[in-house]
Amino acid sequence: MDAYRLLGDDELAAAHARSVIRISTGPHGTEISPMRAAAARLTLGVAAARTGEIEEAIGIGTRALEADRKSLPSLLLVADELDKELRSRCPRETATRDLHERIMKIKQGATDSELPF
Q1: For a FRET experiment, which of 21, 56, 81, 106 has its CA 20 to 30 Å from that of 5?
Q2: Which of 90, 86, 64 has its CA nearest to residue 75?
Q3: CB 22 within 8 A of CB 35
């Protein structure tokens, strides 16, 4: 999924992302791998942004960032890709700016963590 996204093969990246989400979801709809599912959603967001589906990209990206459990370093790498795509394609959209600000706040929180030593 990640390799195809980085290579720009959005169709294969999205197909693998949908598979990741499917296998990350239990029989009753509970996510059993929420961090991996969040990364997969961001990949779907990047693919949607690249094909001009801006509202879908923002919606998917927002949902991914709302996940309770996050692997911030890897999640922020993909979130940065989505942010870059959206800001290059529709920089004046309010939703684009809102998502950008949300990503910046998450980044700020990730760097401001209090270490026990």
Answers
A1: 106
A2: 64
A3: no
Q: How many CA atoms lie within 13 A of 63 on its CB side?
A: 15
Q: Can you give the three-state secondary structure of the chain, one letter per residue?
A: CHHHHHHCCHHHHHHHHHHHHHHCECCCCCECCHHHHHHHHHHHHHHHHHCCCHHHHHHHHHHHHCCCCCCHHHHHHHHHHHHHHHHHHCCCCHHHHHHHHHHHHHHHHHHCCCCCC
Please answer whether residues 5 and 13 qualify as being in contact, where contact means their C-beta atoms are separated by less than 8 angstroms.
yes
Q: In angstroms, rounded to a whole number, what is the distance separating the alpha carbons of residues 18 and 2?
A: 12
Indicate yes or no: pTM above 0.85: yes
Q: What tens digit of pLDDT does each residue of 11-42 get?
A: 999 999 999 999 999 989 888 999 999 999 99
**Could you give the maximum distance between any two Cα atoms of the chain, in Å?**
46
What backbone phi and psi angles, to 5 degrees, belong to 30?
-80, 135
